[in-house]
Amino acid sequence: MIKLNRWQWGRQLQWGIVLFVIFIFLNLFFFDTTAYFKSISNLVFSLITLIIFMISTGSAKFTEKRFKLTKQILIWVSICLVVTVSEMLIYNIPNNIYTVFTHSQFWTNTFFALSAAIFEESLCRGLFFLLS
């Protein structure tokens, strides 16, 4: 069951749209800056979005109950892990991972990845998904 929110759906939708538009204009405004500065600014804005999501729901959870690990779920997780590991070996992903960790712009790439994940989860799942 989805957790009840503190805010009404209209207010959540309004905040989600406003935050998304600010994110787009922020990236347009910082177009000529360095990639490192842009990644830091995206990360800071994503953390602000996460704080707004936590204020709107009262917590970082979006469900009231935890999912139970049944036998079927464990079987599917095992199948997914076997397929993922085999694909990683087929496409030589460990070499790509090594390249990413030894790249000169490791922190810039990490900040971009974190900001994208935090912003997407807090905006889409937090403010738009919980409109019930």
TrEMBL record:
Keywords: Membrane, Transmembrane, Transmembrane helix
Superkingdom per UniProt: Bacteria
Transmembrane stretches, start-end: 12-31, 43-61, 73-91
Identification of the protein by name: Uncharacterized protein
